[in-house]
Design brief:
By secondary structure, the chain is an alpha/beta fold. The protein is 54% helix and 13% strand. The protein has helices at 8-37, 42-48, 51-54, 58-75, 113-127, 152-160, 175-186, 208-220, 263-272, 285-293, 314-331, 336-362, 365-370, 374-386, 392-404, 408-418, 424-444, 451-468, 473-490, 517-542, and strands at 4-5, 78-79, 83-91, 93-99, 132-138, 142-149, 194-200, 224-229, 236-237, 239-242, 245-248, 258-259, 276-278, 299-308. A hairpin with a 2-residue loop joins strand 10 (239-242) and strand 11 (245-248). The longest helix has 30 residues, at 8-37. It is elongated and about 125 Å long. Residues 303-307, 350-362, 491-499, 505-517 and 535-549 have low confidence and may be disordered.
């Protein structure tokens, strides 16, 4: 295990500080003895000066030198091991509506309109890591790829696999896409600003009046609108794979299709919503999107920024503090009589201070939770939060108690905030129960519940958890169940979905075998492939053929 320091020069100096400290103590003792010899000879000094004054302070030198060294090492910033860096940042809630129609395969932007779009999305994500982002793919219909999330891995996973086959229905329809994006943002929790970003070549074939009406509805719901263009007005061909060859797309008359960038449609939509239009000729569209959304009210969040070497301060500073306190006590005499007097004064005061806490401990919310009184436990943790306890662990406890009390809607809000905790243990437990809450809602359904969206949210939570703790068998089971519930609801339902129940809060028996990280990543990749195949099957089953003379790109 290698150890590094934020201030290496101070760590080097720490190796020299003990010798300097010992030299100072030796010099001080020598000067003291010189002053004492002026009082008389050795016999007089034995009668006049205490033994502690005449004795060389060896032990005190060791205590102080050790404390100074530990303090210097702590201030130098020691780091070792591996951990997760959590950065506090601010952001807004953004739905990225991505045009996945065939026209986005045109190569008038290199390597294609769609690949250039993906590149700009990554630039936008890098410029604003605090934003929660949802992905919405659309062509002849719109499809939610990812709910609002801070998980860059999940967003990249869906973005990498995005192509026209994901949506399936031909054409380009903007009105239902805007409506679905607005609904997704209206369901978002939190005080952050909300924005819908439409990224398209503008070549839409649906009713323009409906699209403008949907844009005005977004404005009425206080949702900012940004439209971003891709392609060129000169246009380009649409290459399609035909076996091993690549051929241009042709229309019903056999003519090669030339798709054109239409800025008028995107400009009008942005104007109807009083938003901003970013034309296709802009060089850095991802950064321009970020600047357009900076005026929105942001919300502080804690974002995971990958692996890092944790900072270890307490292991150096705490022993140094104890040594300095011990040295101060010994320098003041440290007699048993003084200790008894100190205890007689401090003990009653400590009892008075601890009495309210002792009374509160008797009604500890954890005791209610253990006894199955979940509502009272939730009330106790709510009281702690109202009194100023904002620790992620307390939020997690509140969310778990509400979930156990079957108050799912309230539990999701607390667990979402706890899922951003810097502490890996709290964060992972919160992700597990957050996924469980969404999974329960998806299974129960109801007129006001979008089962597919809830299953998506559950799968996203468990996917994030499995990437951090790949050996969790219960999370793996619930993740697969979430994918199954999503498939059943999207495909018309299935009679066996109620027979399979999710694993409850942290039910992880020791006899279950874990899995390696490689196996976990293979599982996630296989689940993603299965998900994409099932989506394609459903889309082929509901695919609408174009009307004679209609356009399907």
């Amino acid at each position: 295990m290698s150890i590094g320091f934020d201030l290496p020069w101070l760590a080097v100096m720490a190796t020299l500080l003990p010798f300097g400290t010992m030299a100072l103590f030796a010099l001080a003792h020598r000067r003291r003895m010189q002053r004492l010899t002026r009082l008389g000879g050795p016999a007089a000094l034995e009668r006049l000066a205490p033994v502690e004054v005449r004795r060389s302070p060896h032990w005190r030198t060791v205590r102080v030198a050790t404390a100074v060294t530990l303090l210097a090492l702590g201030v130098a910033g020691p780091r070792w091991g591996m951990g997760t860096a959590i950065v506090r940042t601010e952001g807004v809630d953004v739905v990225l509506a991505i045009d996945a129609s065939l026209s986005m395969l045109a190569t008038d932007e290199r390597p294609s309109r769609l690949e250039r779009l993906k590149r700009e999305v990554r630039v936008f994500r890098a410029a604003a890591p605090g934003n929660r982002v949802a992905l919405l793919a659309f062509a002849g219909r719109s499809y939610i790829l990812s709910p609002l999330t801070n998980d860059d891995g999940a967003v990249d996973l869906f973005l990498d696999n995005l192509d026209p086959s994901v949506v399936g229905q031909p054409g380009t329809a903007l009105a239902p896409t805007i409506t679905q994006g607005v609904d997704l943002l209206r369901a978002a929790r939190g005080s952050a600003g909300r924005a819908l970003v439409i990224m398209s070549d503008g070549e839409a074939f649906d009713d323009k009046a409906a699209s403008l009406a949907a844009a005005r509805a977004a404005k009425e719901n206080e949702i900012a609108m940004v439209t971003v263009g891709f392609g060129t007005e000169a246009g380009g061909q649409i290459p399609l794979a035909d076996g091993t060859a690549v051929v241009p797309k042709r229309d019903e008359a056999g003519q090669i299709v030339i798709t054109h960038y239409d800025p008028a449609m995107l400009r009008d939509i942005a104007a109807a919503a009083q938003g901003e239009f970013i034309p296709a000729g802009t060089s850095d569209r991802g950064t321009r999107i970020h600047h357009a959304l900076r005026r929105l009210e942001s919300q502080q969040r804690e974002v995971q920024e990958g692996r890092s070497r944790p900072l270890h301060l307490a292991i150096f500073l705490f022993p140094a503090l104890l040594l300095l306190l011990l040295d101060a006590w010994r320098a003041d005499g440290g007699t048993l009589a003084r200790a008894r007097r100190w205890l007689r004064v401090v003990a009653p005061a400590a009892l008075l201070l601890l009495a309210p806490r002792i009374g509160a401990a008797q009604s500890d919310p954890m005791d209610h939770f253990t006894a199955g009184r979940f509502v009272r436990a939730a009330q106790g943790w709510k009281q702690k939060i109202a009194e100023g306890d904002k620790r992620p662990a307390t939020l997690y406890n509140l969310g778990t108690a509400l979930l156990a009390a079957d108050s799912i809607n309230s539990s999701i809000d607390a667990l979402e905030r706890a899922a951003a905790a810097p502490d890996a243990s709290v964060r992972q437990r919160a992700l597990y129960n957050l996924g469980l809450a969404h999974l329960r809602r998806a299974q129960r359904g109801g007129a006001d519940v979008d089962a597919v969206r809830e299953a998506n949210s559950a799968a996203a939570a468990y996917r994030t958890l499995l990437l951090q703790r790949h050996e969790d068998a219960d999370a793996r089971w619930n993740y697969e169940l979430a994918l199954r519930v999503r498939q059943q609801n999207g495909g018309g339902g299935s009679s066996n979905k109620d027979n399979q129940q999710p694993q409850q809060q942290h039910a992880r028996p020791e006899e279950r075998q874990g899995m390696s990280r490689q196996q976990a990543e293979q599982l996630l990749a296989a689940a993603q492939r299965d998900e994409k195949e099932s989506q394609a099957k459903r889309q082929r089953g509901t695919r609408q053929e174009r009307a004679p003379g209609g356009k399907d790109w």
